[in-house]
Design brief:
This protein has 355 residues and is α+β, with helices and mostly antiparallel strands. Helix content is 36%, strand content 22%.
Length: 355
């Protein structure tokens, strides 16, 4: 059974069809990447309306649904809805803007477009559990990122700027086969490392700095995500203590991952170690997030999330400590949930590195 077949089976009870317009979800259900297009999912059949820029490629690549050249989209959709006796359509509540929703209502006044979250929840539920192929693509992206990290360690030296290091890391990931980087690479040194989402600057790295590097590669649309913190030269006893605390917290969270536990319990395992070591209030973000076709997906590994983990959920474990005006440390791996533990997809070492 294809993804589209499974989606059609789980349409909200009152819906005759589901309407997908977001590029990410179109790609998830058809395997085809395009900046525009309308995908209609129905129990009896599904159909992708796509313009001339993509039509030939889509026709050749997509086997799970009908592909139609969209040259007069409104008229074509109207005819399609009438032909298939579609009266009620579910939409992506998290991806369709209010303007787009109203536009569909105005163009197709005989159709009831459902404004509930039911269809979106079905999509999120599908994407939450990764297939073996999806996991393999993430692993391939992760290996590229790790190899680029190793090359970057040899590039880093006193006087190199954060921006130079970030550019080298990005270039190396692409040189090693990444189709793109997962997100804007973070390289933050010294006081900047205390900012979780710092932007690389022209600040040169100096002796005694921690350098936080948060980066990832992309393969077939699937992202990887990792963070490592390395030191330049000698660091203080406080820096060593913070690093070791973050590492202990990350290992504790990794040990807490298995099927059937709450996401908040995984977060709590990391947060407890940090708080008990005297750094309560210095870890202000969630312990992790899902990764896949988007760099941030469900589930959130946060203090509030009571969702239970399931086999083949894929997410990050990335606790950190940030001391404003001084320095910060973050260590991040990606894991896949298994019955009695997790598969860690990240192989780069986590012991303190001094360059």
């Amino acid at each position: 059974m294809t993804r589209l077949d499974r989606l059609a089976e789980k349409l909200p009870e009152q819906a005759d069809a589901g309407l997908i317009i977001s590029p990410i979800n179109r790609r998830y259900y058809t395997g085809f990447l395009s900046s525009a297009g309308v995908l209609i999912a129905m129990p009896q059949k599904s159909c992708l309306f796509i313009d001339f820029r993509y039509y030939e490629h889509a026709k050749a690549q997509i086997t799970d649904c009908e592909v139609v050249l969209a040259d007069h989209l409104t008229e074509q959709l109207d005819a399609f809805f009438r032909e298939n006796q579609i009266k009620t359509i579910a939409v992506e509540s998290q991806h369709m803007t209010l303007c787009e929703f109203r536009g569909y209502q105005e163009r197709f006044p005989e159709i009831c477009f459902l404004d509930s979250d039911d269809f979106q929840k079905v999509i999120l539920s599908d994407r939450l559990i990764k297939s073996q192929q999806e996991i393999q693509w993430v692993i391939e992206a992760q290996r590229i990122a790790e190899n680029a990290f190793e090359e970057t360690l040899n590039y880093i030296q006193r006087g190199r700027t954060e921006r130079e290091i970030a550019l080298f890391l990005d270039y190396t990931m692409k040189k090693l086969g990444a189709e793109d980087i997962s997100f804007e690479t973070i390289v933050a040194s010294g006081k900047h490392s205390a900012v979780p989402h710092a932007v690389p600057t022209d600040k040169p790295v100096e002796n005694g700095d921690f350098i936080v590097m948060d980066f990832g590669a992309m393969v077939n649309g699937y992202h990887s995500d990792m963070t490592r913190t390395v030191a330049i030269g000698e660091i203080s006893s406080e820096q060593k203590r913070v690093y070791d605390t973050v590492l202990q917290a990350q290992l504790a969270a990794l040990d807490a991952v298995k099927q059937g536990v709450t996401c908040k319990s995984i977060d709590a395992a990391a947060r407890k170690r940090i708080d008990n070591n005297g750094y309560a209030g210095c870890f202000g973000h969630s312990t992790g997030h899902g990764v896949g076709l988007e760099i941030h997906e469900k589930p959130n590994i946060s203090p509030q999330n009571e969702q239970l983990t399931e086999n083949n959920m894929l997410f990050t474990i990335e606790p950190g400590i940030y001391l404003e005006g001084k320095f910060g440390v973050r260590i991040e791996d990606m894991v896949v949930v298994r019955d009695n533990g997790c598969l860690n997809l990240t192989k780069s070492k986590k012991e303190r590195i001094s360059l």
